[in-house]
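Action item from last meeting closed. Structure (60 res):
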């Protein structure tokens, strides 16, 4: 099981996570990233590394 979490206090809606994730886990809605496909997550952690605000946590 994996849980992808976005801290919406930190998220600026930049869209980097949408562009980075290979399996389209994220979508930006109203300038915040929303996790729409949690179960598709491959735990590659690219989103955690690339998010400029350090707003994403991938929890196994
Ligand atoms: S990369 Fe980070 S700051 Fe940018 S939209 Fe995704 S969660 Fe928000
Ligand atoms: S860890 Fe990888 S597969 Fe999972 S949400 Fe982040 S970029 Fe997507």
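Sequence:
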């Amino acid at each position: 099981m994996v849980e992808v979490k976005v801290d919406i206090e930190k998220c600026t809606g930049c869209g980097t996570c949408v562009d980075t994730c290979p399996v389209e886990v994220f979508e930006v809605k109203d300038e915040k990233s929303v996790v729409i496909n949690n179960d598709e997550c491959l735990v590659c952690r690219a989103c955690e590394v690339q998010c400029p605000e350090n707003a994403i946590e991938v929890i196994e």
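Note appended to the action item: Residues 3-59 form a domain with the Alpha-Beta Plaits fold (CATH 3.30.70.20).
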